[in-house]
Amino acid sequence: MISHRDRNAQRISALDERAEALHLKRDMGIADARAMHPSIDVVEADPEADRRLLEGLADWCDRYTPLAALDGADGLFLDVTGCTHLFGGERAMLDDILSRFFHQGFDVRAGLAATPGAAWAAARFCGDRIVDGGEEEALLAPLPLAALRIEPSTRTSLESVGLRTAGAVMAAPRAPLARRFGALLLLRLDQALGRLDEAVSPRLPVAPLSVERHLAEPITLTEDIERLVGMLAATLKADLERRGEGARTLALLLFRVDGAVSRIAIGTSRPMREPRLIQRLFHERLAALEQDIDAGYGFDLVRLSVLTSAAFDMQQADLAGEVIDDGADIALFADRIRARLGEGAVLRPVAVESHLPERAVATIPFTEAPRRTTPPKRPDRLQAPTTIFPPERPIRLFRSPEPIDVPATEMPEGPPLNFRWRRALYRVTRAEGPERIAAEWWREAPSDEAASTRDYFRIEDADGRRYWLYRQGLYGGASQVPPRWFLHGVFA
């Protein structure tokens, strides 16, 4: 038996057939049950583990339909509209579901109907039953009020006035029912009878494109999985070409014989639909996850889905029939590295609207970096050329400026004569500057230390090494704090 705490008492939440044969029931106190049968075994309920198990079963049911939703703590909704013919019809599909669950060790009750409400009632009160369209009222009429999926308080109120079955509620006038028991009662009744639509909200997004392969013999080797990925990608290519799109995110689903499901996703920097390239990306991903994927007794269903797609830009080939794309090799290299090491393995620097050096560049994932979609504009020949030389920046910019000691300067606002950095003294032979960079007053308060004015100098020492350092603050200013010196980068 499974117990749970209800207020200050332990009560039975679930029990097996042997416990039911001992005349034990749900919500009975554990103390009363032990008084009747001292030898019973009681296990504390674990709602989180039950939830994970139910979600795992929902993932496994994705082999029948992508529209799988959770129903409370012990049920699933499957929208199999348009899917039953793939399994030989409704009865064959239902028998296959029940058989597979039975071999996995689950005692499952299933119902199939045209409405979710009728299917829910058939599964929980009639067992294995298929309800034809138009027979919902005949199904619900003899069932108790719980078959309408209404609150326990509403059921108690209905039973107090003599309405003990769903048929009695359907025969009663609607207006008094709505006034006394609320609109939810009629809503549930109309949904079960098909008068109002009730959608099943899937727990996972539905892929716009998917291809799958059912296997007569389960596979366990990674090489076989990669070979199937290439075959499925070739099938996807035709669908993507017809839509004029390429895949940006793909997911590989491996359904194990015993019910476990492995999901492997990859992302691409550019829209992709070439089977060979898709197979190479999944090769890298499978190599990285080889220790984490447990094939068990093998996978009997493999599915490749396109989760997100984008427009595929066709490129003009040259006279030799080759397409020249300078960024294709870099994008493929980045995708392979990301597939093996993760999304944060390859970053790209992008310019940011800030004149402070440490904020002028940000690193973002390679797939999120903007790409030029139009060729650069050609300069106007009639317009006089205007050349603007940007200020020189060091090859290596430190993540955070490092403080240095400056014993003396040639003049208060000039460059230092020498400085000490990391316990070493450097003698300055040449200097350029200053380049003044003021604070971003719209982002930081003037009182902050980082908001002070900076004077940058390009410095060369006696050994020919060049540095980029700055003085923070001004001499003779209103602040009583003396200026400080920092080293921000090195040129060579």
Automatic annotation (TrEMBL):
Cofactor: Mg(2+)
Record keywords: DNA damage
Domain (DNA polymerase Y-family little finger) ranges: 209-295
Location of the UmuC domain: 7-123
EC number: 2.7.7.7
Entries under Gene3D superfamilies matching the protein: 3.30.70.270, 3.40.1170.60
A Pfam cross-reference name: IMS_C
Keyword Nuclease part of the UniProt annotation: no
InterPro entries, A to Z: DNA/RNA_pol_sf (IPR043502), DNA_pol_Y-fam_little_finger (IPR017961), DUF6504 (IPR045443), Rev_trsase/Diguanyl_cyclase (IPR043128), SulA_CellDiv_inhibitor (IPR050356), UmuC (IPR001126)
Catalytic reaction equation(s): DNA(n) + a 2'-deoxyribonucleoside 5'-triphosphate = DNA(n+1) + diphosphate
Domain named DUF6504: residues: 408-490
Top EC group: transferase
Family: Belongs to the DNA polymerase type-Y family.
Oligomer status and interactors: Monomer.
Function according to Swiss-Prot or TrEMBL: Poorly processive, error-prone DNA polymerase involved in untargeted mutagenesis. Copies undamaged DNA at stalled replication forks, which arise in vivo from mismatched or misaligned primer ends. These misaligned primers can be extended by PolIV. Exhibits no 3'-5' exonuclease (proofreading) activity. May be involved in translesional synthesis, in conjunction with the beta clamp from PolIII.
Protein name: DNA-directed DNA polymerase
Native source organism of the sequence: Mesorhizobium cantuariense
Lineage: Bacteria, Pseudomonadati, Pseudomonadota, Alphaproteobacteria, Hyphomicrobiales
